[in-house]
């Protein structure tokens, strides 16, 4: 209800107003009164009303003086003057103070009701506009990190429009102007779907890999961004002052990342360093060096079968820009874009003699990109194609580059028009936003309702989608992510237990300890003690 304060030195007026105004009908409630402007100021500061009805002529401080002070204090209440003074100068002063209305005493109940009704309507409209502005700001703040992340990803892959920079990255780019820049490409040397950790929870695997890489990088460099290019490949874009120590740190960083991923996730990786660039606009060239064989290590294993080096440089796995474009096209079921990318690629390949071995390898590379893109949005390619589909058999039976081109385009069409697509894609993208928001707010005491509010979606509906895509409830998932993060921090030994509790979103250390023991089987203190236990001799 709209809160109303009345300021008047006439007690009869105060009593009469309280009685005659149809408060409930107007959705208003009387909350306070004062006999003069000075006391009225204090009442208004304390009660913060939506509407103020005031006389002009009062002792100590008159109504106009009070309104002037309220304006200086930025009080946004609507002011209605109800005064026995009909002096034009008073009315003009009042209008300069931007009051809602000026009524002369005695005013009829109909007139007062009509004015209050109009003022409450204005308040309601202003409140709706304010809510829209707040919602818009919240949406902008929610999507700003995604804009920045996608822009950096496009810088690395060479798909960005450098003539137009998003406002969210201007300050960051300015800090890059006097720095050196390099890309480290991180690729997994074995199929992730065959690893136990990834099979158990692909999202948690990616979250853990990102955290491990970021933490290792922080020990060597201050300014860097982690970019997930695909499930099977990521990159670090690093910016640093030119010095010999930085070069040494790059070499140390590659070894540390490979060792850490292998230790914590039991997956072998290859980290390749691209060429160092003095201009951030050439960052994509550093990435291309990583995957074209000019980096310090080869990320993609080269084809050793027949075919010259000049042909190998056209192989799909060596074009990060093309891989990125195909991945995005498949991810969004954009058949036209995917076909255009494939056709463009084959325009280059047709100038080389057809090789069945190279064609099979090329087809497998393209198929891998599409398979992982589908997996990333919750669709298994085996569910899209017939059960008897045999990729190796189909690829081996192609007799020319044109046949292979047509075959791949047919499969793209089949994939993009599959009935599973729309629902899975929307749900997967929604869950990705949820997980990204959770990862960025892990230290907050966040709930499913909080994320539902941020995404403007029903809590129950969001929970159902999350469980469908991830395979477990949001509550279980967030508990598991928090507990795994807590275990890692406790084992590292850099924080006290209450600090770990806060960093994973628990304001109550006792509740954190109870949850931790329920999840792990031991308390945080017991885990610390395990770190210092001396192994018993056999």
TrEMBL record:
CDD domains, per database record: REC_YesN-like
Principal localisation: cytoplasm
Modified residues (4-aspartylphosphate): 55
One of the GO BP terms on file: phosphorelay signal transduction system
Domain of life: Bacteria
Domain HTH araC/xylS-type: 432-530
Record-linked Pfam families: HTH_18 (PF12833), Response_reg (PF00072)
Annotated ranges, domain Response regulatory: 3-120
SMART domains: HTH_ARAC, REC
Coiled coil is among the record's keywords: yes
Keyword Transcription: yes
InterPro entries: CheY-like_superfamily, Homeodomain-like_sf, HptR, HTH_AraC, HTH_AraC-typ_CS, Sig_transdc_resp-reg_receiver
Keywords: Coiled coil, Cytoplasm, DNA-binding, Phosphoprotein, Transcription, Transcription regulation, Two-component regulatory system
Protein name: Two-component response regulator
Source organism: Halalkalibacter akibai (strain ATCC 43226 / DSM 21942 / CIP 109018 / JCM 9157 / 1139) (Bacillus akibai)
